[in-house]
Every structure is written in C-alpha cells, then in structure tokens.
Specification:
Elements lengths: L9 H7 L2 E2 L21 H8 L4 E4 L7 H14 L4 E4 L20 H6 L4 H17 L4 E2 L24 H17 L3 E7 L20 H16 L13 E4 L16 H9 L6 E3 L5 H7 L2 H11 L4 E2 L4 H16 L5 H25 L5 H22 L1 E3 L13 E4 L14 H9 L4 E3 L1 H4 L24 H13 L20 H7 L2 E5 L7 H12 L4 E4 L6 H5 L8 E4 L5 H12 L17
Parallel strand pairs: 1-8, 2-3, 3-4, 4-5, 5-6, 6-7, 10-11, 10-12, 12-13, 13-14
Antiparallel strand pairs: 9-14
Protein name: Glycoside hydrolase family 3 N-terminal domain-containing protein
GO molecular function: hydrolase activity
Pfam families: Glyco_hydro_3
Length: 596
Amino acid sequence: MTAEPAGATRTERAVNGVLLPGFENRGRPAGDPDRDGGLVPDWLADAARAGLAGVVYFARNTPDVATTTALSSALHAISPDLVIAVDEEGGDVSRLEAVTGSSLPGAAALGAHPGGATVSLDAGRALGRLLAATGIDLLLGPVLDVVSEPDNPVIGVRAFGTTPDDVARHGIAFARGVRSAGVGVCGKHFPGHGATTVDSHVGLPVVDEPLDVVRARDLLPFARALRPEGRDAGQSTLDAVMTAHVLYPALGPAPASVEPSATRLLRELGHDGPIITDALDMGALRELTGSVGEAAVRAVEAGADLLCLGLDPALYTESFDALSQAVATGRLTLDRLEESRARTQALVRAVRDRRAAAGAATGLDVATEALADLTAFGAGIADAVVHVRRGSLVPLVPEAEPDVVDLRTRLDHAAGRKARHVQAAITAAWPRTRAFPADDVENGAGRRAENGAADTPPAELGQDQPGLAVLIARFTRYGVSADLNRIDTERGAEFPGAVQEASGSEPLVVITREPVPGSAERTRLEQLWAVRPDLVVVHTGLPGPVEEWFGTLSGGGPVVVVACGTGRANAAAVVERLRGPAGRQGGEEQHGSEQQ
C-alpha cells in the first residue's frame, strides 16, 4: 500500500477516504498516448495524494480508449491505491463508448438470449478485459434490479429481467465474468429500483410495499449474489454494493442511501465490503437534505463507505468541508471514517491480487484488442436477440428514404439524454433518411440523424403541439412527408401518388421505449398508426410487454422490431432486420428470459 502523504492530516485522510468524485479532464493526451498530457486537474491530484478513496469516470473522461488508458495510468501514478470506478453496463449505459454507442448489448439483451446465463458470464468476462486494459478497477454493476414496473423511467432494459430468479442468475454470472478478468464489481441499486415510476435523478421514488414482498422480489438477487450456492458457496460474488435513493417505508423513513436500517439489512444479508451511495447530487436527495454536504454526512451516519459525487469539483469541496465539520463537532468520528477507508483498501488489495492472478495487462494496445473482441462478441449477442414480432416486415429497399420519428418522451438520465444510435445506424444504411427527434418535430423541419446521443434537451412533443400535427397531416394526405424537399422538387399536391406506392419508397419508422397505455408516447403512436398502418416500430424498451403494448392497438398493431436497447450493437442488428430476409420474423417467435 502507498505511504501516507506527509502533508495530510489524519482528518484529511479519513475524510478523503470516503469520497468518490467525478471530475473534468484537462484535455486529451497529446502525442505519446502513454503520457498523461496533463489530464488530471490539480485539485484532484492534490486530493489523491491526501488519501482520496477513488474517482468515478463519466463519458467526458473517456472519449476513446487512448484517453481512458492514459488517464488511468496518470491517476494510478499519483496514487496506486486509488479506486477508478465506472458505470459501464453495456447497452443503454456506456461511458467508454458513449459517443458511438456500446459494443455490448445491455442486460435485457443478455437476459433474453437463448444461451442463458452462460452468455452473461462470457459477456462479463469480455467487458472485464476491456475495463482492466484501460486501468479501471471497479465496475459499478451489475444492475440487480428486478423490473416489476413496466413504466419504470430509469431501469428498463438496464435490468436482466422481470423476475428475481432471472435477475439473480444472469447478474451473478455477469459478475463472475467481470471478476475473472481482474476487475471488481458493485451490485446496484439496493434494495431495488425496479418497482419505481420516478427517476431518482430528478425526484424521490417511493416503493410502498410490505417487507415480505420486498424480500421476495427486490432483495432476492442481492441475497443470492452475496451468499451464492454451488462453486461460490460462502463467497460473495460482489465486491461492493450501491444503495439507491429510493424510499422504502417498510425499511425506514429515509431513502435507502441515507437510511441506517437499509445498511443494517445489507450487512445482515452478508455484505462485508464497501457500501457505495448513488450520486449524492441527484434530485432524490435535494429536498430531503438541502445540500450535498448534508447528504454526505447523513450517508456516512447511515453506514455508507463511499460517496459518489458528480463532475463539478464544488461537490467534492462541499462534501469534504461538511464531513470535516461533522468530525470537528463530534457528529462523526475519525474511527468511523477510517473503518470505511479500511473496507475500501481491502477491496483494492483484492482487486490487485485478482488482476495479477488473471494476468491482466493495462495499455493502449491491449485495450484496443479488447475493444475489438468485445465488438465482435456483442454483434453476435445482438444478432441472436434483436428480432421482429407481430407480423411480417416489408424490407426497406436499398434506395428507400425513411422517415424516422422518435416518439420517446422521457429523458434517460442514466444513459445520457435520449440515445440516438438507432437513428444514426438507419441513416448510415439509408443516407436519405429524415430523422424527426422531439426537439425538431415542433417545426416540422426534420433533420438528418446525427451520430451519438443528443446533447441538447429534447422538447416535449405533446399531441396538441404543431409539430406532430404537421407530420400527421403530411402522412395522412400523401402517405409520405409531402412537403419535404428531397429531390429538388417539392412533393406537394401535384405529386399526390398512391399511399402504398409512396410509403414503399419513404417508409415510416417510429422509435418507442415506454408506450404504456395512457402515456404521451402511446398517444403519439396511436395517432401515427391511425394514418400510417404501414409504419414499422423499433422498440428500444422492455421486450416482455410488446404484445400488451402493441397488440392492443386497433387492427392488431404494427410490425415491431424488438431492439432490447439502444446501444450500437443493438442498432446495427435493427438495420439488418429492416433490410429484410435475414431478419427473424414471425409473430409467433418469442424471445425473453421467461422462455429460458
């Protein structure tokens, strides 16, 4: 272990030992990728030398594997025992491939794969190799939430399934795979975020269920991962556990991340490693605690060991000051903070030993190779899982000029706005695509799809707003986007054409995630379906409710390409299904963890 810096006091080391901040890089490595190029900001370097427990990578830190590898090397050169953590779930949530979209389909795709949990094991191993190669120590995953609420705005396809058994089986296998590559894992979001209808990034979710229901449904995957049977009996498959900003009245009056009874329950289930909070600057805690600093103190009082913070260095400063003040006033003791620090140091030792046993190397060449392997592996997963349901798909001809309308209404804060990798893939295959994201549909203009996730907040597209009305008018009258100038000749009244003929060359593809009956997304879908019965849905949300959500539309509902997420691998497989005969078609074909 690293010697303590001479200039740091015991209090500074103890307080820093529970903090896990995000940060902004100072740039990208220049010239030699093995040099850090001044990537680490001064405040972070000073904190690392003064005992900082670790950092969390966000997408801004990891624009490519070269930057990620150089940054990790720079941080570990400053403090070899620093924990570098990242949310790299695959699928909809990717940090290392945020720009292009993930090479690995997410948990829902793995849970739906006909190969069962063995595929999740292999996926975890492939991802773990990339993480180890880029110098990352701890994966903030797997997601062990059970999606029992289809209208869940934040988990959805990030979960392995909708039953506790499926989530436990695949989650444990995935964790084993990651660990076998020499990387630590952190199960999340304890006690469970799958039954919520509120995103904790913006508000406080409440799951008002009896404790016996919570134990049987939400806690079971965590309990099995912490005390597995079989070859790992008596040995936890989790190195850490992340608590959720979710209020369970059956457990106590506060959200689990700041609720002592939730921490006690987690320890009773057998977890003796670090307890990590979800990011303390999320909306769920703002009204409750009033400040990130107070949230930090309350989390430690509740038994948390590592406190996740966002990118702004002010969050680190505020938390450090609040914890230091709590020590000065006797609200917290140094012994309590050092107890948490010791747990984190034990995790570091375990991960270092594991990495050595796995023979995992860190460097740009090995990271590039690991990414290529992950890409090939992920493409195979997506090809096996992405499929066509509800009828026979009419292939999009090579010269087609699709209209792509994004009907998703809610931001996905965990994934970074609303990922647009599906639009990007369709545009790459059919260059004359017109994409209508929500922020552009209002003026009816449409624009070519861009690569990557949208950076600007998408505006709401309500059924009474003019943008959707314009599109519906166009689709209704001509079966195509009548007023769009694609061929230097405006397609107007003089070119009415037949709907069937026009829609063959200008098909309508709509993207959905949560078309729950009664929702705004569902209403928009119904309006477009009424005027364009030839439309094709690309559904990026949960695969299980497809029949419930789309089969209840008038006339039996549209053809649906079930994407199981929005990652790059998923999007590429969607394009192959839209192209035709290679697609897995047939309304009777079923995929999903419930079939395994």
